[in-house]
Records
---
Amino acid sequence: MTDTSARTRGRRVLVTHDRLAENAIELLNAHDVDVFFSPAYAPSEQVAQRAAELQVDALIVRQGRVDEAIISASPRLKVIAKHGVGVDNIDLQAAASRNIPVIRAMGSNSRAVAEHTIALALTLLKEIPRLDSAVKAGSWPKPSFIGRDIAGTVIGLVGFGSIGQHVARMASGLGMTVILHDPHARQAIAQFGAGCERDLDSLIREADIISLHCPLTNATRNLLDERRFGLMKPSSFVVNTARGALIDEAALCAALLEGKIAGAALDSFAVEPPAKDSPLWAMPNLITTPHIAGVTAGSAKAMAEIAARHVIAVLDGEAPDEGSLARLTELAA
């Protein structure tokens, strides 16, 4: 997508991607905001130069890291809106030091991420990649294959916000047993069902599938490490559609190689894009997708429109939405 304007309006927003949903562009234009783009995952210095040249009033962050150089490039910058909810690619300290709010598009892609989580969990549970490869290689494993049942499988959700709650309902509908851990959502857990709550280590020991749905903070970084992989059942799986750094990737490789767990599915990675020579790629019991769980036609429109509305509100002099703010004390950049 090309830029939609040539500085014809009074205010400017830079999107860290080459496109934004048309509904959001139209909304921004209607509120006196021109929309400009930079390539996804462009080097910081390139994005900073573009922000400086344009003298942007706002950033909408889609992909790539937004560091201090970018945040300080335009003295007009008043707001950073995330096209989504994860903010580990934004330097929150640099934004806070300049009193620039970082605002998330809360709830915009929750169902999409939940659907992808369930899809990955079922793919692992039913061993579809292995069976697919075997048949295409000329093998016919039917005589020896015994599959696993979905009904009765215990899925442990770490994090019970909007996404976790969607996953829990979907999993329950499939006949799975849901257990939960989230010290910040105990009331929601109690409302979901009596007896579902576990401490983290107990959940890890009990679950057949461990699915991560918590934010990346200083407390949750490397949440699944060597010790916790050692607590898991050898027949269990890990699914991560949250933030990559929740998992110690070296420990995950070791757990997969040593048979401490049966497999894993990752939609996000500690560094994105991950290295082409990552040791993860040698793991036959690993499924990966390129951080697209929340990227559907519906969620893209919702994320873009919510981000646009946050930008417009702040540029119009309104206070940022309290429930959507990314707070430095809560989240890790």
---
Amino acid sequence: MENRPELKVKIECQNVSKSFYEQGKELPVLEKMDLTIRENEFVVILGPGQSGKTTLFRMIAGLEKPTTGKIFVENKEVTGPGRHVGIVFQRYMVFPWKTVFGNVEMGPKLKGLKKQERKEITNHYIDLVGLRGFEKAFPHQLSGGMKQRVGIARALANDPEILLMDEPFGQLDAQTRMQMEQETSRIWEIEKKTVCFVTNNIDEAIYLGDRIIVLEGKLPGRMHKIYKVDLPRPREFTDLAFLKLRQQITNETELVL
């Protein structure tokens, strides 16, 4: 059997805790989080509301600082947002005054790339997310799913080493959400980025993740259990192994389907 070198660590949380303070009172949100995410891995942070998963996401993204412990991205301690990390939020973070092309082009433009190179990169990611033909459309002319495709394309156009996604499909209807899950899996297979994906949906976690990190449901959030998802891609929601893992996670956590 071929010996494969171990993939390098892209994200590492070392004994991370986070508290907020309101009117002099401490509110612990996360406690003693130890987490390692490796190159090209798709890791899902799964937990109900008020489990601290978005706070963990924001600390990895450099938008919040740990109260104790340290977070490393690419072996460098996180002290703020970095260009090597792409972020997709739950809200549609698109510029309403810019077209689809203008939104996706933002990163390459800020990098100072020449016009032709920017055009090639932008068109590539517009094609990748299935928005060819909508380059001149403005956000108000797009559906929710299409707006989120714009957000994903814009994040990828920066060529980040790591893609962070915080419940990006939470505002979508069930059918559009399933389509976006399928698209995300397809794009990840092509791009092979390291992905950290936050959700409260068990089916979504199993469909997308290589590993699922489950957080307990009461503050402060703690790591409850890690599940490795050994299912071939593309995955089927009705596959027996899928349903078995779904039931196992449901039985062992406070999450509901």
